[in-house]
Amino acid sequence: MLQRQRFTPLLPSGFILLLAGLACAFSARISGDWAMAISWLPYALAAVGLWLAIQFSKRQLLLSVVLTLAGYLLVQSFLQRPISEPLVRYVYTLLILALPLALLLNQLAMERGLSHPNAMTLYSLVVLGFLVAVVSYLMQGQALVASLDAYFAPRGYDGMVISTNGLVLSLLLLLASFITFFFQKGTIAAGLFCVVLANLLPLYFLDVPFISSIFAIAALVIALLTGIKNSHDLAYRDALTGLNGRRKLFERLAGMSRHYSLAMLDIDHFKSFNDTYGHDVGDDVLAMVASKIAQVKGGGEVFRYGGEEFTLIFPGMGASDAQTHLNDVRELIATTPFVIRDKTKRKQGTAEQRGKGGKSTKTVQITVSIGVSEKDKGQELPEQIIKAADKALYKAKKQGRNCVVAG
To answer: What pLDDT digit, counting tens, does each position of 145-201 carry?
Structure first.
């Protein structure tokens, strides 16, 4: 199940790549206005992508768009001519090796905005690499191409125009991109991997009509969706726990018209825990608890309300039924030992891994109290239901904590 969830973020971008592949299967039939539109659409998408990247200060989106557009321009400007020409082979070899490498570096570097030092370093590397490639060809073009041809001279392999070495190295870069996605996880990491894939595929099958335009469109659409997803997460997701935050909660509640239950969950003795062990360990507790709450069954939706409080919504379910699933979560948290780890280890690991391993000095039990209420005739507004759940939570605290109370 966990492995299936790990690959689920690939589905949206994978579907776009599948549509691009299907379009290439019928690309020989494209002509007239459709051909013109497909050739110019990458530029329009790139303009939108650049505007969004600057508007929301997203370096990964900016470089994904710029590198995809640069690759597309080079293909359109140079690779429409015979591969026997030295300049064409030079550009092709650079695209096969340098383009996926640059996209991989963009994927590896943490997103910290357009003007962060790591962004400036990446910009410098891209510009410097381009200048070195241009100057090197201008100064010793024929000798340079001859040297590259010794290892990367393009050859045909059942419709593919690429050298064995070029194929192996580009696939290794693609594998590195996939491994990066595997460990980073999430829709954004999946999108960045698929951008790399979308830029490489047309270079493998150059003879397919319109393949560079079709996959440039696919890469840019994926980059745009990834950028939008990134901006959405900043607005709605809690950075520490990875859960949706209070803004998303109230938007969700505003759109719910049918019957539902709502629970307020609070970590017991969290303030004294923070005072004793420090805020770093407190953050680890919040992340661990969030990862356990996220495993709730019954269609429950989880949000971080604020501080040590979390909110769960059960659409179409009464409070008594929701109580069963809430008790399962409460018991899961109570039976999960939390290890106070060495300070140097606290910032490492995902939310699921926090509280495990490392140099431990003490193991403590974390418990939660939960109050649950439901929408009914006398209690229909979200604020009323939250207030009722809060009162039930207060009762749970009064009853000795580590329990679920309906109100």
So the answer is: 999 988 888 775 566 778 889 999 999 999 999 999 988 877 888 999 999 999 999
Question: Could you report the per-residue pLDDT of 14-73, keeping only the tens digit for each?
Answer: 999 999 999 999 988 888 888 999 999 999 999 999 998 998 888 999 999 999 999 999
E-strand ranges in 192-351 read: 260-267, 301-306, 309-315, 337-341
Cβ–Cβ under 8 Å, residues 380 and 364: no
Residue 173 DSSP class: H
Burial class (CB in 10 A: 0-12, 13-18, 19+), 159: exposed
Nearest Cα residue to 385 out of 393, 376, 398, 394:
376
DSSP structure string for 187-245 = HHHHHHHHHHHHHHHHHH-TTSTTHHHHHHHHHHHHHHHHHHHHHHHHHHB-TTT-SB-
The predicted model scores a pTM of 0.70
Q: Is 308 a catalytic residue?
A: yes
CA 103 to chain centre: 15
Residue 82 is classified by DSSP as: -
Can you read off the two tokens belonging to residue 175? Answer: 């594998």
Query: What residues have CB less than 8 Å from 369, skipping those under 6 apart?
Result: 265, 266, 268, 393, 396, 397, 401, 402, 403, 404, 405
Query: Per the residue annotation, which of 111, 301, 308, 374 is the catalytic one?
Result: 308
For residues 140 and 145, what is the distance between their CA atoms, to the nearest angstrom?
Answer: 9
Average pLDDT over residues 353-377: 75
- What are the strands, taking DSSP E only, across 139-272? 156-157, 160-161, 260-267
Per the CB < 8 A criterion, the answer to whether 224 and 192 are in contact is: no
As a whole number, mean pLDDT of residues 111-123 equals: 90
Tell me the per-residue pLDDT of 242-275, one tens digit each, with 9 for 90 and over.
Answer: 899 988 898 889 888 788 999 999 999 998 888 8
Query: Beta-carbon neighbour count of residue 138 at 10 Å?
Result: 9
User: Contact 98/74 with Cβ under 8 angstroms?
Assistant: no
12 CA to centre of own chain: 11
Locate the DSSP E strands across 177-317. Answer: 260-267, 301-306, 309-315
DSSP 28: G
Other residues' Cβ atoms within 10 Å of the Cβ of residue 53: 22
Please give the structure tokens belonging to residue 117. 């030092």
